[in-house]
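Good morning,

Both structures are done.
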Amino acid sequence: MKRLGIVENLSYDGTVLVRSEFAPPLGAPVMDKREKHLGSVVKVFGPVQQPFTAIRPAQAPALGLVGTDVYMQERTPHAQQKDRGNRRSH
């Protein structure tokens, strides 16, 4: 697992805001240190060095997540190659 960052706040629309150490891909699953699914990435914004990541929580009461570390699965090179594009050469 790779550490994504620390949950800083909750936004008005219910998303969880994380100060990230890197920019994750949209739709990527996010979990806690026990590998429990917390939600998925819906938006990445802010400064390039430490962007904010908005996560749509899987469970409604997300207030208890503030101040906790969140993680992502590390992607293998094969999985990265698979996501490069959907076009076929004809």
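Second structure follows.
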Amino acid sequence: MPNESYKELDSQFGITKAEQSVEAEVVVKEMQPTDLSTIKPDDTTKDYRYVRAQLYDIVEKMQESLNDAMDVAHESQHPRAFEVVFNGAKNAADVVDKITDLHKKMKDLEAEEVKVQQTNTQNNIYMSGSTNDLIKMLKENKDK
């Protein structure tokens, strides 16, 4: 039931009881966690390209906003407007820094993949000497 103090406003604006009651149905869907086993190795490159594109898009939008904010700051000569511009410039620089970090992380990831591939290599070890020399060496290493 509507509050008594709003009856006068309701009559002023021509609101009827039927307009006051609104029924809505809320549907809530549960999100399923991502199954990490379904991620393919080529998804890394795909994700890298997507993140990189998003960061570039953010930088471009921030640059447009900074230009507009700079125009406002120049016209108003208000210190707060210049503060907003400087904070925006710092945030844009942070996004550019994230792009650099993204490149570094991708390079590290690629180097790690190469390292994993190289650790599976077995080198043949050659020793010149007699079995007595080998036994002596093993005893010396054991004593150390």
